[in-house]
Amino acid sequence: MANTIKSIRRLGLESPSSRVVAAYYFADGDKRKSDDEDESTTIERVSRTLLWQLATSYEAMQKSVASAVDRTSHFDGALDLWDQLFFNNKERQNSNTTFYIFIDSFDPDLVPLLQKYSESADRSRVRVFLTGRPELITGYLGQADGIAYADVPIARRNSDDVEKYIIAQMDNMPILRDATRQGISEWREVIKNELRDKCAGDYFKLNTSLAALAKVDLIEDIREVLKDAGKPRTDQIKSEIRRLNNTRTLKEIGEINEIILWVDSGKWFFPVDVMDAILSVKHRAPALTEQSVSLRRRSSTGEAGQGVADEPALLSTISLLPLAQKLREKYTLFGITDSGVVDWRNSEIKAHIPTKGTHQDDTIRGEGSSQSQVIQESEINIVRHFLNTVCPKELYKRFEFDEFFNQRLGAGLKEYIHHDPENADIKIAYTCLIILTDEDLRKKEVLQRYATYWVLEHLAAVDLSAADRELKGKVGPLLVRLFTEDDSLDSLFWPFGKNDPFPSTISLPRRCFWERVRRQGPVPPLTLRHKVVLLPIR
After folding, report:
1. Which of 213, 241, 370, 384 lies 20 to 30 angstroms, CA to CA, from 224?
2. Are 449 and 499 in contact (CB under 8 A)?
3. Which DSSP helix (H) or strand (E) runs through 52?
4. More confident residue, 161 or 301
5. Residue 524 in domain
6. Are 480 and 486 spatial neighbours (Cβ–Cβ below 8 Å)?
7. The domain boundary residue, chosen from 122, 152, 182
8. Residues 145 and 28 in one domain
9. DSSP string over 208-265
C-alpha cells in the first residue's frame, strides 16, 4: 500500500485531474495501549485520521471545512462528520481534484462508512483503496447492502515478489546458502515452489515457515516444515507456541513470559534497549533480601586477590546474546516494529497465549497430551529406588540421574508460555519498586522514568484478593524501604528531563507535593484510591 500511495502522489500528466489528494490510515501505526484514555471505536479513529488529512490537504479545502465547522453546532457521530465535512462539502465537488483514500487492514466496523461512501460520493472523484484478509472482505463487504467493489487477489499477482523474498531468505540459511553443493539447488527450487503455492501470499505463514527451515537440517524435518506451511494461521501459531515450550529452557520460557507481561500489561511500548534493561532487573532481585556479595579470587593466604575485578554473583545468569538477536532467533512470538519497539510478531498471537491456571494441554505439551501424563514425585522415587538398588554409587553419579529426575519432575507443569493477568500489575509494581530502591538500577534513567511515573498506578490496580501471596510478601518490604529510605523516596519524585524518550508527563501536583515536604517537613497522609500510605519525613 505504501508504494501505491507514493505512485499516486507522483502522478503527473496521467492524473485524472489537476490536483491529487491522498489520505491514508495504517492500523499498526495507530496501536494503543489498554490504559489509553481514548476509547474511540475503529470507525471514529479512522475518520479522525482521514478527515484531518483531507481537511488540511490544500488551502481551499481547509477554508471550506472550517466554514462547515462554524455552521454546525453538533455532529452526530463519525458518519455525520463525513457528511458535513467531506461528502457534502462544495470544495470536494470541485472537478479539478481527485481524492484517494487508503485504509490498511479492513475492519467490520468500517462497513457503515463504506456504505455511506457508496451512496454519497462521486466515485470518479473519490476513490477508496483498502487491504484486508480475503475471508473478512467476502464475509462482510460481500454481504453488505449497497457496496460494489472490485478485488485484487494479491496472492495471484505478487508471486514474483514472494519468490524473490524466499530466495533472499534461503541465501541467508547455512544449509541452503551454497547452491553449488550437490542437491542444494534442487531443494531450493522445491522449497521456493512449495512455500509460494501453500502460503498464497500470506507473509505471516511465509515467515513462520522460513524461520522453522532456518533451524533444521535433516531432510525429514524440511519435509515436515513444508507439509505444515499451508496450515491455517491458528494452527501455525499453536504449533509455534508448542515448539517453544518443548525446545526452550526453563529460564528462556521465563524470559518469554516476562516479555509477554510487559508487552501486554506495560503502560508504554518499549524500545529494544529499554526492554533489555527491564529484563535485567529480575537478576538483581535476590540482592534485595541479602547483602550484595562480590566474588573475588582469594590467594593462598586467604586474602582477596588485588588484580581481579569484582563480578556480582547475581549477574552470572544474564545472557550475553543481544535481545534483538534473541527475538529473531529464539523468541519468535515477538518482533521489532518499524518504530523500533518490541511487540507481538502478529497481533493474532496474543489470543492464543494460554492464561496461567487454565489447562490447554494441546498448546502446552502437544496434541494428545493429558494431565495423567505429568510425572509425579512418587513415580520418580520408585525409579530412583530401583536404580540405587542395581547401580553402584559411582555409576549412578556418572549418569547424573538425579539431575535428570529434577528436570522431569512435574514435566509440563513447571513452566510454560502463558500470561498471568491476575498478577500482571503486582509483578510490574514489584519490578518498579526494585528499581526505585536499588542504587545501581536507579542510575539507569530509562528504568527510573517508568518506575517513577507508573508504580503507584500499578499498585492501585492490584486486586489483593486475587494476587499471589508470595508476590504480596515480596512487595511489602520494598514499600517500607521506599517510604523510609531518603534516596528511595527521592527517586519516587525524580523530575523528568527535557530529552526523555518517554513523555514528560509527571504531574505538577507531585512536584508541588515534594516541594511542600522539603519546606514544611511532615505532611498529612497521602491517600491513593482509598489506600492510605504514611510518609514518615525525617
Report:
1. 370
2. no
3. helix 42-55
4. 161
5. yes
6. no
7. 152
8. yes
9. HHHHHHTT--SHHHHHHHHHHTTS-HHHHHHHHHHHHHHHS-HHHHHHHHHHHHHHHH
pTM tops 0.85: no
Query: Would you state the pLDDT for residue 314?
Result: 43
Is residue 128 located within the same domain as residue 148?
A: yes
**Above pLDDT 70, what percent of the chain?**
76
Tell me how far apart the alpha carbons of residues 53 and 98 are, in angstroms, rounded to a whole number. Answer: 14
Same domain flag for 437 and 491: yes
For the chain, how far is it from start to end, CA to CA, in angstroms?
Answer: 61
Structural domain range at position 497 = 421-533
3-state class (DSSP) for residue 102:
strand
Same domain, yes or no: 208 and 84: no
62 is a domain residue: yes
Q: Quick check: is 71 in a domain?
A: yes
Cβ neighbors of 524 (< 8 A, separation 6 or more) are none
DSSP per-residue codes, 385-417: HHHHHHS-HHHHHHTTHHHHHHHHTTTTTS--S
- Residue 293 inside a domain? The answer is no
Kindly state whether residues 165 and 132 are assigned to the same domain: no
Q: How far is CA 106 from CA 30, 134, 290, in A?
A: 14, 10, 54
Q: For 328-361, b where at least 16 C-beta lie within 10 A, e where not — what string?
A: eebbbbbbbeeeebbbbbbeebeebbbeeeeeeb
Statement to judge: residues 126 and 105 lie in one domain: yes
- The number of folded domains in the chain is 4
Range name among 41-50, 55-64, 445-454, 494-503 with the lowest pLDDT average: 494-503
The answer to whether residues 60 and 129 belong to one domain is yes
- Are 140 and 175 in the same domain? no
Backbone Cα Rg of the chain: 30
Last residue within a domain, chosen from 231, 252, 271: 231
For residue 526, pLDDT beyond 60: no
Report yes or no: 170 and 188 within 8 Å, Cβ to Cβ.
yes
Pick from 199, 190, 209: which is nearest to 156 by CA?
A: 199
